[in-house]
Amino acid sequence: MQVIDHNTYEALRAAAQVLEADGSGDKVLRLTDGCILKLFRRKRLLSSALFYPYAQRFANNTRALQQRDIPCPRIIAVYRIPSIARDAVYYSPLAGETIRQLKLAKQDADALRGRLGCFIAQLHEKGVYFRSLHFGNVVLTPENTLGLIDIADLSCQSVPLSQSKRLRNFSHLRRYPEDRQWLLGDDAGQAFFDGYRQGLPAGSQQAPLIERLRQLLG
Fold first, then answer.
1. How many whole angstroms separate alpha carbon 122 and alpha carbon 99?
2. 97-217 — its CATH code?
3. Cα–Cα–Cα angle for 4, 8, 13, rounded to 5 degrees
4. What would the pLDDT profile of 63-85 be if each residue is shown by its tens digit?
């Protein structure tokens, strides 16, 4: 993590487009070079972010995903900016459209549901637990592969996820009613379940998991 002074920060963000902000200030900036500067603040005096800053987690997570051949943003630098009490990650965004954008564009819905199910299965098999799993954080790239964005809230392990972790991860898909309706409404969920099954290793004995998944999301 590189410490930069206020003048360097102001030069970096000159003429930037503010993509996201709140009452505490800017959160996400699109810089003039097309890259993103994502700012993190520590919300509590004593928290894990004191020892393991969110910006560094974001950067470390990109490396973990790249090692697993999962498309994600490309890190350029990680900064500490004492003058505004923020840490920041400077990165090249992952090109493409999110699942949420694609479903609104009336893409082939069943094919998209199946691809999403297969992709989530592959994440789970590769030990990726993505707490921010929702349609706005999964991207279909120009190379026609699915990838992840907004990955600060993610963890990776060296073995496939347990059934309990997989089910907890699936519960995140229920947070947005309109997304859940598109994914599962009017028997649409079969394509998603079939896709998840296809993403599992050949011969995998996961029928009980698929049934529990149906019950959880149904």
1. 17
2. 1.10.510.10
3. 115
4. 999 999 999 999 999 999 999 99
